[in-house]
Design a protein that fits this description.
alpha+beta; OB fold (Dihydrolipoamide Acetyltransferase, E2P); 2 domains; 5 strands; elongated
Length: 112
């Protein structure tokens, strides 16, 4: 058994499993940006989360303790202020409609 644990085949299997786990996690947690126009944003919460409708796709704006994001109210206010304008949005996560999962907004800036 110890010989198998030291073999190249075992190491290859472990490396493949780690890659299959780490690549999706990386794609979920690393933020990216999109330039779009905000079509709707309101201060009312849906299921405890703020929603922001954009020409890109719907986004959610909720606090994320593990990312030290505690300012979803301020970000939502900024989204309302910039409604109808071209904006750059920093976001992370995945949009999975069947699970009602949305990408989460980290930051919004107006594009001048």
């Amino acid at each position: 058994m110890i010989e198998f644990l030291k073999s190249a085949k075992f190491k290859g299997i472990v490396a493949t499993i780690l890659i299959c786990i780490l690549v999706p996690l990386y794609s979920y947690f690393v933020s990216d940006t999109v330039v779009t126009r905000i079509t709707d944003a309101q201060m009312t919460m849906v299921d405890g989360k703020f929603m922001i409708a954009t020409e890109y796709k719907p986004l959610v704006n909720s606090d994320a303790n593990y990312r030290f994001k505690f300012d979803s109210g301020n970000i939502q206010n900024e989204a309302i202020r910039l409604k109808g304008k071209q904006v750059k949005i920093w976001k992370y996560g995945w949009r999975i409609p069947i699970l009602s999962m949305y990408e989460n907004v980290l930051k919004i800036e107006e594009v001048k």
